[in-house]
Amino acid sequence: MFTDANTCSTVSGDSGNGSAYQRPSAIDLLYRYGVDSSIFLGTPERTLLGRGVRLRLKRGPGESTATALQQLFTDLQRNGDSEAILVGAIPFAPDAQPVLFIPDQLDVAGPLGRHTALKPNQARRGTATEEQPAQAVYAQRVQQALDLIRHTALKKVVLSRMLEIRSERDIDQSMVLRNLAARNIGGYTFAVDLPTPSAGVRRLVGASPELLLQRMGGQLLANPIAGTAPRSSDPGEDLARSRKLLHSAKDRQEHALVVEAVAETLRPYCRNLHVPPVPELLATNRVWHLSTRIRAELTKHAPASYALALALHPTPAVCGEPRDLAARAIHTLEDFDRGLFTGLVGWCDAKGDGAWAVTIRCAEIEANRATLYAGAGIVADSDPWQEVAETSAKFQTLLDAIQGGVA
Ligand SMILES: C=C(O[C@@H]1C=C(C(=O)O)C=C[C@H]1O)C(=O)O
């Protein structure tokens, strides 16, 4: 159904009316996002707005998400439904239930781009915040991770923090999404409706700079990101920090571990795998990153986007290296369940196309509460308090969108 990225088409779940074409723009879709929306996804290629849930993916006992998805697309095709687009989020832990569904109705438009109508709103300040763990405890955990790196085969582990905000009034989820979209042009902006036992609306909202994997026809793109420095409001200092990051041996090592792992996993499915020898800088509103854009042509029998993405997940950008030791360290050193944070968010279709971003710079929002997440990669030369500063800067992307603040 994605024939022209600059026009918009509607894919309706009601098979009798599936041919209804409209032409709202990406900005229309963003402003239409509301209580009846089940998903918004803005990527550098296109914008998706979904309403309702026609079909939710349910994994059988012991079944992997990749197997369940393959079965679902086989069943859909057997029923003559080859246009369906599946959207949603996959958690960090491989055995946790994903939130994946085919919307009742899905509107598709081109990318949001730099639209003058996108002006961040000022919002109410949060009234109470609670960190988990406290900054000093997080610094201690980083020190414990450094001890593990010194004494075991662990090379890198990503440790995260949680920040809970409680506001006097309900947080306007649509406004948070619009603020994120206005400040994070070129990234992956998302809002996913989450099942909740309460009558309220609980959503995962965020703006990720990191593309785990995109497959369009035979073309593959992956954009691993690792190595971070907080930005400065002073332009000279900001530039100096970006240059320091680009030449930092510690950050280059942290980055290289991710690029190597991604390239090695993809190599068997690729021809002409192009891995740039040095990373480039990528700026978000609050941090500088080291970024590498890996491109390839896929071989004829390469798996679908979701299968490739799940083969990569979790990369050392969000878990560590080696993966099993890092996962164990995360289990010991983090005292909350990551849930969907550091998982995947995106879309895929029956043809095997799709795009999956890494679920970072995000929060779960329900009523007057928001739970924010941020992590940082720890390698041998990491400094505990610099990792505190890095995770604080990462929280700021969501804090800006929820509380207002500088654009
Ligand atoms: C885990 C996060 O980010 C990841 C870790 C990074 C790092 O350690 O430099 C950079 C980008 C992401 O791959 C996060 O933003 O919460």
UniProtKB/TrEMBL annotation:
Record carries keyword RNA-binding: no
GO terms of molecular function: isochorismate synthase activity
Enzyme Commission code(s) on record: 5.4.4.2
Cited Pfam families: Chorismate_bind
Swiss-Prot/TrEMBL keywords: Isomerase
Catalytic activity annotation: chorismate = isochorismate
Residue ranges constituting the Chorismate-utilising enzyme C-terminal domain according to the UniProt record: 135-394
SUPFAM superfamilies the record matches: ADC synthase
Record keyword Chloroplast present: no
NCBIfam families with a match to the protein in the record: isochor_syn
Alphabetical list of PANTHER family matching this protein: ISOCHORISMATE SYNTHASE ENTC (PTHR42839)
Family, per entry: Belongs to the isochorismate synthase family.
UniProt name for this protein: isochorismate synthase
